[in-house]
Amino acid sequence: SLGALVCDLEPGTIPASDPRILDKLKLCPALTGPQQDALNALLLSGDTVHGDPSSWDLQTLQDLGPLVLALNQTTLSLVAEAAREDFRRSIAAAYTSQGHSQREKSLLVLRALAAASAASRARLRRSADRCQYDPITATNIEDIIRYLSPEMLDQLDLCLSNDVLIKNLEAVLDLPITSEASWVLKRKVDESFQTGIPEQQLRRLGVLSRLYTEQEIGHWPVTSSDTLSALLSPSGGKWEDSQVQQLLSRYLVLGGSLTGPLLQEIGGKRLCNLQEEQIQQIPAAAIGTAGQLNISSCSQAKKEQLYRKAREAFASLASTPGRYYCGIRPYLGGAPAEDLKDLANAHVAINMDLDTFLTLNPKEVQKLSVTDVKHLLGENLPELKKAEHEPLVVSWVQEQSQQELDCVLGIGLQGGRPEPTGTACPVPTTQASVTTPASVTSTATATSPVPTTPASVTTPPSTVSPSTPTPSTLSPTPAHTGGPSVPTVPSATPTARPALTSAAPCSTQQAPTTDRATS
């Protein structure tokens, strides 16, 4: 009749109560440490319906229900090994279908069972010639490794044959393996292939491949791109840069070729770690299919190498500047000024983003005019003001005429070369169409006096934006019927660039990033 109050009983009351108290204790959410000790004392007495622990079987352990969580090593070590093993397997079989909370409880029981097994016998030395448990086979290898405790590592080595491991390697490596167990498995793999791991087996190493030293990797027979791709797969965990460098060097020494997909797996940072001679071996076509690589960590010489290969790879797109720019953009840090000027003067506005602009070679940027930069950035020109304190921008501004910065860019950049006092921005050219009643021909410009004869004059706006027609695209006002129209001639003042069509943005691609503080 106590009901849930049994959960609050003093520890000494539990072994002194009727053995049927066990059924009530199963309803308790948790037992205190002293209550668990009292429970184990009651069970060890053998005066319960379950009898002495040495007689327990799988059914007994299952009947204990949640009380199993309270069993200590003393009690569990008295349970027959076969019963513990059957119970462990039943828990492992149900594990995948359990919820998060129940899984945590299952793991506690599995660890307790493993610890009890280790405590029930003296720890084996490596010189022992036999396994103290049932041999690990293809049918139980996953269950055993999934719930392997640190105390059982020596048994993993003794009970798992090399042949069973190699045949089931992928399945084993898909399990959550501790670092200690991984080293045991690596040693067994090495024992299986004492003259060297065959290339087909290298592809199966997964997480174990990360345990090999640079010296060991230097002996691997990595000749296939499939092998290299399998080894670089992120599913195997993180490589050290030095390991990848050795792996790539070995692959290239054995005659391998880096393809676009391989470059994607290698990544821009590790690509930059290659020697210049190794980068030279990369086919231009591979760059064309490598996607957006971030090569900001490359030396300038390597950036120029990669840019030349990219220019060759995307040469077929040169007639469509927008597509050409999107492809070559990650490599523009190695572009010479001449090529940047060509992009600026293309018949399509590429609208270079600021992050890409800041990755350009500062020495080459110094060779660009104010107009070049304006045309390169296009509609992104206002962003340049936000980066006015970047070293690349500061050094470029200092080489430009302040008047040009004000008149051509008009975004408020300061720090250019000063002009003589009183110098003003030139008035943009205007073209006039004048009609006179008589057969008189005259020329009019924005700086010429306006003729007093009746005239129809069309004057373009004083400033021209990329979306505003230039004088050359304006249609003259219909002539006055009283006489012939006066022909127009170009002004001596340079006219604005014709309006351009903007290229479609590289919407599905990512601009290369840069650390602006070290740009």
Automatic annotation (TrEMBL):
<comment type="similarity">
    <text>Belongs to the mesothelin family.</text>
</comment>
<dbReference type="GO" id="GO:0016020">
    <property type="term" value="C:membrane"/>
</dbReference>
<dbReference type="GO" id="GO:0007160">
    <property type="term" value="P:cell-matrix adhesion"/>
</dbReference>
<dbReference type="Pfam" id="PF06060">
    <property type="entry name" value="Mesothelin"/>
</dbReference>
<dbReference type="InterPro" id="IPR026664">
    <property type="entry name" value="Stereocilin-rel"/>
</dbReference>
<keyword id="KW-0325">Glycoprotein</keyword>
<feature type="region of interest" description="Disordered">
    <location>
        <begin position="419"/>
        <end position="519"/>
    </location>
</feature>
<keyword id="KW-0130">Cell adhesion</keyword>
<protein>
    <submittedName>
        <fullName>MSLNL protein</fullName>
    </submittedName>
</protein>
<dbReference type="InterPro" id="IPR010335">
    <property type="entry name" value="Mesothelin"/>
</dbReference>
<dbReference type="GO" id="GO:0009986">
    <property type="term" value="C:cell surface"/>
</dbReference>
<keyword id="KW-0472">Membrane</keyword>
<feature type="compositionally biased region" description="Polar residues">
    <location>
        <begin position="504"/>
        <end position="519"/>
    </location>
</feature>
<keyword id="KW-0732">Signal</keyword>
<feature type="compositionally biased region" description="Low complexity">
    <location>
        <begin position="426"/>
        <end position="499"/>
    </location>
</feature>
